[in-house]
Design brief:
This protein is 70% helix and 2% strand. The chain is an all-alpha fold.
């Protein structure tokens, strides 16, 4: 293969992965995503707790680190065979190991996404995954009684879910921008809402951690594309 052909193949692979790939997403992809998310939470736990100390209980980073460690361990020990089953296991694990509101909210996100995918399909298309994630995000809003603009994790997740049908990288950018957009907001939900105007000027920790989750998803897609191109 010539250098130009190899470069074109890699570029095509990146485009395919950004849209989910022709072969779709399998359980191994979802395991890699959530394992990468666990590593990101591990790295950023201190920053998440610092953000939470300004407008919350100062435990967001520690709680998520404990939960995602448990998720990574569960998936390494006995990984399910379908994307939906992987997400369901991860969601159950978060609910059972993460304290405060984060466990139920993140658990709901992953469990509902997994339920929408079902546990029979070994592979799902990007369109199916995007629709399932959107349903998971909607379930988070219902559980928390929140909406975009309330200075919550939804300010990152809703734009990410909306952008995902375009590409994983578009979802990453939308989540990052959404998280940053919470800084000037006045919190209307959760403990931060008790601060009133004093919540203005601080990034929401849930939006920040949600952006980490979506970034890990985009990076997993890019790594998968690179591996396909090399192969």
């Amino acid at each position: 293969m010539t250098r130009d052909a190899a470069r074109d193949r890699a570029r095509d692979g990146e485009r395919d992965a950004a849209r989910g790939g022709a072969a779709g997403l399998d359980a191994a992809f979802v395991v890699r995503w959530l394992t990468a998310a666990a590593a990101a939470v591990e790295r950023e736990a201190g920053r998440l707790t610092e953000l939470d100390s300004a407008i919350g209980d100062a435990d967001h980073g520690a709680n998520l680190r404990r939960g995602f460690r448990a998720v990574a361990e569960a998936l390494a020990k006995d990984p399910p065979e379908t994307p939906g089953a992987v997400l369901a296991l991860a969601g159950r694990t978060l609910v059972s190991t993460v304290g405060g509101a984060s466990g139920p909210l993140y658990g709901t996100l992953l469990r509902r996404t997994g339920r929408e995918l079902g546990d029979a399909a070994a592979r799902v298309s990007t369109a199916e995954f995007a629709a399932a994630l959107a349903a998971g995000v909607a379930a988070v809003g219902t559980l928390g009684g929140s909406a975009p603009g309330d200075k919550t994790m939804l300010d990152a997740l809703v734009p990410a879910a909306g952008a995902l049908p375009g590409s994983f990288d578009a979802a990453r950018r939308a989540a990052a921008e959404g998280a940053l957009a919470t800084v000037p907001m006045r919190a209307r939900r959760g403990r931060a809402s008790l601060l009133g105007d004093r919540s203005i000027g601080h990034q929401d920790p849930g939006a920040a951690s949600s952006a980490l989750l979506i970034t890990a998803l985009a990076e997993t897609a890019a790594d998968t594309a690179a591996g396909s191109a090399d192969g």
